[in-house]
Amino acid sequence: MSASEIVTTPGSVEGIRVERVITRGVFALDGGEWEVDNNIWLVGNDDEVLVIDAAHEAEPVIEAIDGRTVRAIVLTHGHNDHINASGELAKATGAPRWIHPDDRMLWDAEFGDTPPDGDLADGQIIEVGGLPLTVLHTPGHSPGGVCLHSPDLAVLFSGDTLFHGGPGATGRSFSDFDTIVASITDRLLTLPGETLVLTGHGDSTTIGEEAPDRQKWIDEHDD
Predict the structure, then answer these.
(1) Angle (nearest 5°) at CA 124 between 121 and 126
(2) In this structure, how many other beta carbons lie within 10 angstroms of the beta carbon of residue 186?
């Protein structure tokens, strides 16, 4: 667990800031368990904020929210390490939880018969503090994986679709390497090279840093 940190973005909008909270816990899938650190992203102003993913612990996120209205809790995909604190966070803030319907089976594995509050859709615009963010459906790591793009900030919140060093993992249930490469190629590498990629785990990167390695990812996967 760590306190929140403010992230410098290539673009700027008056009053808008991006913050990161890091939490640690267990990712569980296909009978395996792995301890992981997760990035939780907050974007907004002094009055309202959007929370992107809700991993492991709600309390440090609540602390970072600091009494602001939470517009929504947007879940980039349904793996437990990105959604397992969302129930407690929603209860504390009154915010709705949104996820892409193609990941409903992963949601149900964590929350059973309790449905999400809304569905994310490709091209959907979510506004916080006057800042619009566009939902990009980027399946591959999971069928319902999404990213959020802010052209104004020149930022992409990539979830587990794209990392510093390449695509998200595709070796487990409901994932597919060719699908994630197509998502990255068609939806993400077409963004401006300066776009800052704020990932679900680990260090940030840029589109320009990752784009030249596309063929390398494919070649290494085929070996």
Answers:
(1) 125
(2) 11
Residues 198-222: pLDDT tens digits? 999 999 999 999 999 999 999 999 8
Q: Kindly report, residue by residue over 117-135, the tens digit of the pLDDT.
A: 999 999 999 999 999 999 9
Q: Rounded CA gap, 58 and 64, in Å?
A: 10
In Å, what is the CA distance from 45 to each residue of 14, 70, 130? 9, 11, 9
Dist CA 125 CA 153 (whole Å): 15
Helices (H) and strands (E) in the chain, counts: 7, 15
The contacts of residue 113 (CB under 8 Å, 6+ apart) are: none
| Cα(38)–Cα(54) distance, integer angstroms | 9
Close Cβ partners of 208 (under 8 Å, ≥ 6 residues apart): 193, 194, 195
Gyration radius (Cα) of the chain, Å = 16
State how far the Cα of 81 lies from the Cα of 24, in Å rounded to an integer.
9
First-residue to last-residue Cα distance in the chain: 38
> Which tokens belong to 211?
């784009």
User: What are the φ and ψ backbone dihedral angles of 135, each rounded to 5 degrees?
Assistant: -80, 125
Considering the entire predicted model, what is its pTM? 0.97
